From TrEMBL:
Stretches assigned to the Transglutaminase-like domain: 320-401
Highest rank taxon of the organism: Bacteria
Gene3D superfamilies: 2.60.120.1130, 2.60.40.3140, 3.10.620.30
Protein name (Swiss-Prot/TrEMBL): Transglutaminase superfamily protein
InterPro entries: DUF3857, Transglutaminase-like
High-level lineage: Bacteria, Pseudomonadati, Bacteroidota, Bacteroidia, Marinilabiliales
Domain DUF3857 positions: 75-195
């Protein structure tokens, strides 16, 4: 269950001591506000003619600015986008995240300049966003964002913006993404480093930049106080020059295939930074880039992690004494009971964190908290029940993958628990819809770090158990009305049940809307079962009607309605990153079609039986003597994650499923 991962391929880690110089390129002016007729008249991007928009330039700069005897980081970004057609009008929606530490320090977003350029009667017009149309929104406990929309955006518009983010957090040197969902003609990032801070950077997605150069600034800066008089220098200050590092890429292709991946940030071309060392002007230095053993120790000593678990013990012991009965239960039963107790008595506030947000007393009183409040309290319950348990920190799917070669504590944003001695399992108490032995889908992201003393061990987060959907369908066609009385009994289990419950919340109107989108034209009744029983299959019973297609004296029936996979989202010729389905899955169908009087079968699709180590696809059609057609089908995707080498085979399997499970049956009138 524990695994030490190898370094990520196609990655580059370099200290700021080594640099190369490559040539850059320029297609349009990068001066803010200098919009040319050539840009306004541009109708397509020659290297990607089908692109609905293109980034003309994207330029960023990070520098250290004086703040008395300390420094802030000032990040300045300017960007220009050309819109070709309506498919990319959402490029006008901008979100700028900024960090808040919860202890009084915060990043700020300043000097926002936003303009939309259009051509009207041969003249270039400019429309600015109003300051009143810039909004602030809370993302979670540590992150906020500024949001705005470019005004008057249409086909042919040029969008340009510039803004400043000022940060007191020196560990958080802004990263840079060279690649986007649309192509980028030119992207450049300049970082002006002062000698007191040493960073490492991590280039993902490419082995080199198109342009990379380093130089010393021509100006001299001073830390502290220095007085120069007649060749004598006095004071406690230090003179220094900035190291200016510039990185550029040109003609970066759009990241197009977003299907079945963890997060786009795991695969796009980008540059990440990590503070590794601080050199104090007064002398001495401090290693910031930690090791995995040190990171574990720091977490176990942390007031909102290890110490929080210890402070929870009083409340856990009280719950064990007054509210929880484990008498006669084996280890697995005890684990289930304790998880259910937390799910029944405490609610998740939908914030992800590896650190508790409140004291154990506040959490116990308020009965709600973030993922760490809940799962670290669960860990304290396991300790009180003398069940072996350790915290496991991880990065959620949207947050990106963990690189196990580099101990960056900031990359982790969640904690679950590994419980049990003989057969340890990963558990989480935030999702009431999942069986006790499953962690939420958002947590299934390659690997997690077990936080324990004097050891460094990793645990795989993938789920080995199939999640399934089973559909039993009865169709009674009526050629006179061109309707078919239709009933559906669906069984969802595992993650399939959890996701369906999350999306529809057992709401009859929402469930109706779902099935009305699956070729059911009218719904007369809906019943559900086991909504609050996560270990049981969630059942949905639908009674209604479907429309029948008529072609001359023939009627056409889709035996699986539109419930089967009907689109192959693997659209690229090849792929150099995994196909991440999150969990192995299976979907099965059993359909009975009553042949109406005066009709016979004209076309019955052939059977299918495909099987290998990647997938099973089975399909069987049978006409019975009782004027019925029985259709059974099942497809099983055996792996949660398929490697890039398996892409072509998996894509072919998807093609087979889409084609065969959407075949039609044709009945012909005998009258």
């Amino acid at each position: 269950m524990r695994k030490q991962l190898k370094p990520m391929k196609h990655s580059l880690i370099i200290l700021f001591l080594v640099f190369t110089q490559l040539a850059g390129a320029q297609n349009f002016s990068r001066k803010f506000g200098d919009i040319s007729d050539a840009e306004m008249n541009l109708t397509s991007y020659d290297k990607d003619p089908d692109a609905g928009a293109v980034v003309l330039y994207d330029m960023g700069e990070s520098r250290f600015i004086d703040d008395q005897y300390d420094y802030n980081i000032r990040f300045i970004r300017s960007k220009r986008i050309k819109i070709f057609d309506k498919s990319e009008l959402d490029q006008a929606e901008i979100s700028i995240p900024f960090y808040v530490d919860g202890r009084g320090k915060t990043e700020t977003v300043e000097s926002i300049e936003v303009f939309t350029y259009n051509k009207v009667n041969g003249e270039i017009t400019r429309t600015a966003v109003k300051s009143s149309d810039v909004f602030e929104e809370r993302i979670n406990e540590r992150w906020r964002r500024k949001k705005f929309v470019f005004p008057d955006v249409q086909e042919g518009s040029v969008l340009e913006m510039r803004y400043v983010v000022e940060s007191p957090f020196l560990f958080n040197l802004p990263d840079w993404e060279f690649q986007e969902k649309i192509p980028v003609i030119y992207s450049q990032y300049e970082v002006r480093i002062i000698p007191f801070y040493e960073y490492v950077f991590y280039l993902q997605g490419k082995n080199a930049f198109d342009m990379q150069m380093s130089r010393l600034s021509s100006q001299t800066r001073i830390w502290g106080t220095l007085n120069k008089h007649m060749g004598t220098t006095t004071g406690n200050g230090v003179e220094y020059k900035e190291n200016i590092h510039t990185y550029g890429m040109r003609n970066v292709p759009a990241f197009k295939d977003e299907s079945f991946i963890t997060s786009i940030s795991d695969y796009i071309i980008k540059l990440d930074f990590q503070l590794s060392k601080v050199h104090y002007p007064s002398g001495g230095s401090n290693e910031i880039m930690t090791t995995w053993p040190k990171l574990n120790k720091e977490l176990l000593d942390h007031d909102k992690f290890g110490k929080y678990i210890k402070r929870c013990s009083r409340f856990a012991k009280r719950a064990m004494k007054n509210s929880i009965d484990l008498e006669g239960q084996n280890e697995a039963q005890k684990i289930k009971t304790l998880i259910q107790y937390v799910k029944d008595n405490y609610s998740w506030n939908e914030y992800n964190s590896k650190f508790a947000s409140k004291s154990p007393s506040e959490f116990d009183t308020q009965k709600t908290g973030n993922s760490a409040d809940i799962n670290l309290f669960l860990l304290a319950l396991f300790n009180a029940a003398e069940i072996d348990a350790q915290p496991v920190i991880l990065s959620t799917r949207k947050n990106g993958k963990i690189n196990t070669d580099y101990p960056f504590e900031k990359d982790f944003n969640y904690v679950v628990v590994m419980a049990g001695r003989e057969k340890p399992i990963l558990v989480d108490a935030t999702n009431v819809f999942l069986p006790f032995y499953k962690i939420p889908v958002r947590c299934i992201n390659e690997t997690g770090l077990i936080v324990e003393k004097n050891e460094v061990n990793w645990v795989e987060l993938k789920d080995q158990i199939l999640s399934s959907k089973r559909n039993q369908i009865i169709i009674r066609p009526n050629p006179e009305t061109l309707k078919a009385a239709t009933s559906i009994l669906s069984f969802y289990d595992g993650y399939e049940a959890g996701l369906f419950k999350d999306q529809h919340n057992d709401d009859i109107a929402s469930i109706k809307d779902f099935f009305l989108s699956k070729e059911i034209s009218q719904i007369n009744g809906v019943k559900t079962r086991n909504y609050d029983q996560p270990e049981e299959a969630y059942q949905i019973f639908i009674e209604g009607e479907m429309d029948i297609e008529q072609i001359g004296d023939k009627i056409v029936i889709s035996p699986f309605l539109d419930l089967a996979m009907n689109e192959n989202k693997l659209s690229q010729k090849d792929r150099n990153y995994p196909i991440d389905l999150i969990y192995a899955r299976e979907e099965s169908f059993s359909t009975t079609i009553f042949i109406p009087e005066g009709f016979e079968v004209e076309h019955l699709p052939g059977n299918e039986n495909t099987s290998d180590d990647l997938a099973d696809i089975q399909l069987n059609y049978e006409k019975t003597e009782e004027d019925k057609i029985l259709v059974t089908g099942k497809y099983t995707l055996k792996k949660a994650v398929y490697s890039p080498d398996e892409y072509s085979k998996v894509k072919k399997h998807f093609d087979t499923i889409v084609r065969r499970f959407n075949d039609d049956i044709v009945l012909k009138s005998t009258l």
